[in-house]
Design brief:
The protein is mainly α and 253 residues long. The protein is built from seven helices and no strands.
Length: 253
Protein backbone atom coordinates (compact mmCIF):
# COMPACT_ATOMS: atom_id res chain seq x y z
CA UNK A 1 0.00 0.00 0.00
CA UNK A 2 1.57 3.25 -1.15
CA UNK A 3 1.67 6.52 0.76
CA UNK A 4 -1.05 8.09 -1.37
CA UNK A 5 -3.51 5.33 -0.52
CA UNK A 6 -2.68 5.60 3.18
CA UNK A 7 -3.26 9.35 3.05
CA UNK A 8 -6.64 8.89 1.34
CA UNK A 9 -7.73 6.38 4.02
CA UNK A 10 -6.69 8.77 6.79
CA UNK A 11 -8.58 11.67 5.19
CA UNK A 12 -11.73 9.54 4.74
CA UNK A 13 -11.60 8.42 8.37
CA UNK A 14 -11.11 11.97 9.61
CA UNK A 15 -13.98 13.18 7.45
CA UNK A 16 -16.20 10.40 8.76
CA UNK A 17 -15.34 11.32 12.34
CA UNK A 18 -16.12 14.98 11.70
CA UNK A 19 -19.46 14.13 10.09
CA UNK A 20 -20.40 11.77 12.91
CA UNK A 21 -19.44 14.43 15.47
CA UNK A 22 -21.63 16.98 13.70
CA UNK A 23 -24.68 14.80 13.13
CA UNK A 24 -24.65 12.42 16.12
CA UNK A 25 -22.47 14.17 18.70
CA UNK A 26 -24.32 12.53 21.60
CA UNK A 27 -22.75 9.23 20.57
CA UNK A 28 -19.30 10.64 19.90
CA UNK A 29 -18.25 13.19 22.49
CA UNK A 30 -20.86 13.31 25.25
CA UNK A 31 -19.12 13.58 28.67
CA UNK A 32 -22.07 12.01 30.44
CA UNK A 33 -25.80 11.89 30.95
CA UNK A 34 -27.65 15.19 31.12
CA UNK A 35 -29.24 16.32 34.36
CA UNK A 36 -32.89 15.25 34.68
CA UNK A 37 -34.35 18.67 33.92
CA UNK A 38 -32.57 18.70 30.55
CA UNK A 39 -33.12 15.04 29.67
CA UNK A 40 -35.37 16.00 26.73
CA UNK A 41 -32.35 17.62 25.05
CA UNK A 42 -30.25 14.46 25.15
CA UNK A 43 -30.47 14.03 21.36
CA UNK A 44 -30.19 17.72 20.53
CA UNK A 45 -26.66 18.76 21.46
CA UNK A 46 -26.88 21.93 19.41
CA UNK A 47 -29.66 23.25 21.61
CA UNK A 48 -26.82 24.26 23.93
CA UNK A 49 -23.62 23.79 21.93
CA UNK A 50 -22.26 25.62 18.90
CA UNK A 51 -19.94 23.49 16.70
CA UNK A 52 -16.24 24.13 17.40
CA UNK A 53 -17.09 26.90 19.88
CA UNK A 54 -18.65 25.24 22.90
CA UNK A 55 -21.60 26.39 24.98
CA UNK A 56 -21.92 30.17 24.67
CA UNK A 57 -23.97 31.94 27.34
CA UNK A 58 -26.42 33.06 24.69
CA UNK A 59 -27.59 29.47 24.23
CA UNK A 60 -28.37 29.17 27.96
CA UNK A 61 -30.03 32.57 28.20
CA UNK A 62 -32.29 31.73 25.28
CA UNK A 63 -34.20 29.52 27.74
CA UNK A 64 -33.00 30.74 31.16
CA UNK A 65 -33.52 34.48 31.11
CA UNK A 66 -31.24 35.99 33.75
CA UNK A 67 -33.87 38.36 35.09
CA UNK A 68 -36.19 35.39 35.73
CA UNK A 69 -33.75 32.99 37.41
CA UNK A 70 -35.09 31.94 40.82
CA UNK A 71 -38.41 33.67 40.15
CA UNK A 72 -40.13 31.71 37.38
CA UNK A 73 -39.38 28.53 35.46
CA UNK A 74 -38.45 28.48 31.78
CA UNK A 75 -42.14 27.87 31.11
CA UNK A 76 -43.10 31.00 33.03
CA UNK A 77 -44.48 29.23 36.09
CA UNK A 78 -43.77 31.19 39.34
CA UNK A 79 -41.32 29.48 41.69
CA UNK A 80 -42.89 29.57 45.14
CA UNK A 81 -40.46 27.38 47.10
CA UNK A 82 -36.95 28.05 45.81
CA UNK A 83 -34.69 26.45 48.43
CA UNK A 84 -31.60 28.42 47.47
CA UNK A 85 -31.12 32.14 47.11
CA UNK A 86 -30.17 32.38 43.43
CA UNK A 87 -31.26 35.97 42.88
CA UNK A 88 -27.58 36.98 42.72
CA UNK A 89 -27.64 35.90 39.06
CA UNK A 90 -29.27 39.24 38.32
CA UNK A 91 -26.20 40.99 39.74
CA UNK A 92 -23.44 39.21 37.80
CA UNK A 93 -21.07 41.47 35.87
CA UNK A 94 -20.88 39.05 32.94
CA UNK A 95 -22.92 36.23 31.49
CA UNK A 96 -20.65 33.20 31.66
CA UNK A 97 -22.90 30.29 32.62
CA UNK A 98 -20.40 27.46 32.06
CA UNK A 99 -17.97 28.98 34.54
CA UNK A 100 -20.25 27.55 37.24
CA UNK A 101 -22.57 25.10 35.48
CA UNK A 102 -22.34 22.00 33.33
CA UNK A 103 -25.46 20.02 32.42
CA UNK A 104 -23.58 16.75 32.09
CA UNK A 105 -23.41 14.56 35.17
CA UNK A 106 -20.18 13.12 33.81
CA UNK A 107 -18.55 16.51 34.46
CA UNK A 108 -20.18 18.27 37.41
CA UNK A 109 -23.61 19.76 36.99
CA UNK A 110 -23.20 22.36 39.73
CA UNK A 111 -19.80 23.26 41.07
CA UNK A 112 -19.38 23.53 44.86
CA UNK A 113 -20.21 27.00 46.16
CA UNK A 114 -16.65 27.23 47.50
CA UNK A 115 -15.47 27.50 43.90
CA UNK A 116 -17.68 30.47 43.16
CA UNK A 117 -15.74 33.67 42.51
CA UNK A 118 -17.32 36.69 44.19
CA UNK A 119 -15.49 38.84 41.66
CA UNK A 120 -18.27 37.89 39.24
CA UNK A 121 -20.67 39.97 41.32
CA UNK A 122 -21.18 43.69 40.96
CA UNK A 123 -18.94 45.59 43.38
CA UNK A 124 -21.94 47.05 45.24
CA UNK A 125 -23.13 43.52 46.13
CA UNK A 126 -19.82 41.96 47.16
CA UNK A 127 -20.06 43.22 50.74
CA UNK A 128 -23.75 42.39 51.16
CA UNK A 129 -23.17 38.77 52.10
CA UNK A 130 -26.57 38.27 53.75
CA UNK A 131 -28.34 39.10 50.50
CA UNK A 132 -27.30 35.61 49.32
CA UNK A 133 -26.17 33.79 52.46
CA UNK A 134 -28.22 32.96 55.53
CA UNK A 135 -26.72 34.54 58.64
CA UNK A 136 -25.55 32.19 61.43
CA UNK A 137 -28.00 31.81 64.30
CA UNK A 138 -25.58 31.84 67.24
CA UNK A 139 -25.94 34.52 69.92
CA UNK A 140 -23.19 36.74 68.50
CA UNK A 141 -24.39 36.81 64.90
CA UNK A 142 -28.00 37.39 65.94
CA UNK A 143 -26.88 40.81 67.14
CA UNK A 144 -24.96 41.69 64.01
CA UNK A 145 -26.53 42.86 60.78
CA UNK A 146 -24.33 42.89 57.69
CA UNK A 147 -20.69 44.00 57.87
CA UNK A 148 -19.56 40.37 57.42
CA UNK A 149 -16.38 41.54 55.71
CA UNK A 150 -15.11 43.04 58.95
CA UNK A 151 -14.39 39.54 60.29
CA UNK A 152 -14.64 37.21 57.29
CA UNK A 153 -13.12 37.05 53.83
CA UNK A 154 -14.68 36.05 50.50
CA UNK A 155 -12.10 33.27 50.12
CA UNK A 156 -13.40 31.28 53.10
CA UNK A 157 -15.94 31.77 55.86
CA UNK A 158 -13.65 30.22 58.46
CA UNK A 159 -11.47 31.01 60.18
CA UNK A 160 -12.73 34.49 61.01
CA UNK A 161 -9.99 37.08 60.94
CA UNK A 162 -11.18 38.80 64.11
CA UNK A 163 -10.09 37.95 67.65
CA UNK A 164 -11.78 40.25 70.15
CA UNK A 165 -9.15 39.57 72.83
CA UNK A 166 -6.54 41.33 70.72
CA UNK A 167 -8.47 44.54 71.41
CA UNK A 168 -10.49 44.04 74.56
CA UNK A 169 -10.95 41.02 76.78
CA UNK A 170 -14.29 40.44 78.42
CA UNK A 171 -14.47 39.68 82.13
CA UNK A 172 -17.18 39.41 84.76
CA UNK A 173 -17.48 43.21 84.85
CA UNK A 174 -18.05 43.56 81.12
CA UNK A 175 -20.80 41.16 80.18
CA UNK A 176 -22.78 43.39 77.86
CA UNK A 177 -24.38 43.55 74.44
CA UNK A 178 -22.29 44.31 71.35
CA UNK A 179 -24.27 47.46 70.55
CA UNK A 180 -23.36 48.95 73.94
CA UNK A 181 -19.85 49.67 72.66
CA UNK A 182 -20.39 49.37 68.89
CA UNK A 183 -23.08 51.86 67.95
CA UNK A 184 -24.90 52.20 64.62
CA UNK A 185 -23.97 48.61 63.70
CA UNK A 186 -20.37 49.69 62.99
CA UNK A 187 -17.98 47.10 64.39
CA UNK A 188 -14.89 48.86 63.10
CA UNK A 189 -15.36 51.49 65.81
CA UNK A 190 -16.28 51.53 69.49
CA UNK A 191 -17.01 53.87 72.40
CA UNK A 192 -16.43 53.51 76.12
CA UNK A 193 -18.64 56.49 76.99
CA UNK A 194 -22.07 56.04 78.48
CA UNK A 195 -21.39 53.36 81.12
CA UNK A 196 -21.16 53.95 84.91
CA UNK A 197 -18.32 56.48 85.47
CA UNK A 198 -17.38 56.52 81.78
CA UNK A 199 -18.74 59.95 80.96
CA UNK A 200 -16.68 62.14 78.66
CA UNK A 201 -16.09 64.77 81.36
CA UNK A 202 -15.14 62.21 84.03
CA UNK A 203 -12.65 60.43 81.77
CA UNK A 204 -11.16 63.76 80.66
CA UNK A 205 -10.73 64.89 84.26
CA UNK A 206 -9.04 61.68 85.41
CA UNK A 207 -6.62 61.55 82.50
CA UNK A 208 -5.63 65.21 82.75
CA UNK A 209 -4.75 64.62 86.41
CA UNK A 210 -2.19 62.11 85.15
CA UNK A 211 -0.95 64.47 82.45
CA UNK A 212 -2.54 62.37 79.71
CA UNK A 213 -4.13 64.39 76.95
CA UNK A 214 -4.50 61.70 74.29
CA UNK A 215 -7.12 59.39 75.78
CA UNK A 216 -9.68 58.74 73.01
CA UNK A 217 -8.20 55.36 72.07
CA UNK A 218 -9.18 53.62 75.32
CA UNK A 219 -8.11 50.07 74.46
CA UNK A 220 -4.57 51.22 73.72
CA UNK A 221 -4.00 51.18 77.48
CA UNK A 222 -7.09 49.44 78.84
CA UNK A 223 -7.44 45.97 77.34
CA UNK A 224 -9.87 44.68 79.98
CA UNK A 225 -11.96 45.77 82.93
CA UNK A 226 -8.85 45.91 85.14
CA UNK A 227 -8.70 49.57 86.13
CA UNK A 228 -5.00 49.29 87.02
CA UNK A 229 -4.06 47.72 83.69
CA UNK A 230 -2.62 50.97 82.29
CA UNK A 231 -0.06 51.04 85.11
CA UNK A 232 1.03 47.48 84.40
CA UNK A 233 1.32 48.28 80.71
CA UNK A 234 3.64 51.19 81.34
CA UNK A 235 5.78 49.24 83.80
CA UNK A 236 6.10 46.20 81.52
CA UNK A 237 7.08 48.12 78.40
CA UNK A 238 3.75 48.66 76.73
CA UNK A 239 1.33 46.38 74.93
CA UNK A 240 4.04 44.10 73.50
CA UNK A 241 5.59 43.35 76.89
CA UNK A 242 2.39 42.84 78.82
CA UNK A 243 1.42 39.30 79.85
CA UNK A 244 -2.35 39.55 79.35
CA UNK A 245 -3.18 35.97 80.18
CA UNK A 246 -1.30 35.99 83.48
CA UNK A 247 -2.64 39.38 84.49
CA UNK A 248 -6.18 38.34 83.61
CA UNK A 249 -5.78 35.20 85.68
CA UNK A 250 -4.52 37.23 88.64
CA UNK A 251 -7.31 39.75 88.20
CA UNK A 252 -10.08 37.13 88.01
CA UNK A 253 -8.68 35.26 91.00
Amino acid sequence: MNNKTILVIIVINLLALVLLTLFVPQHMISPGKLIDSHAELADDCFACHTPFIGSPAGQCIACHKVEEIGKVTTKGVPIATEKKNVAFHQQLIEEDCVSCHSDHNGVQAFRPISQFSHNLLEASLQNECDSCHTSPTDDLHKKIKGNCGQCHSQDAWTPATFDHEEYFRFDRHHETECETCHVNNDYTDYTCYGCHEHSRSKIREEHLEEGIRDYENCVKCHRSGDEDEAKYLMRSGGVEGYDYKQRRKDHDD
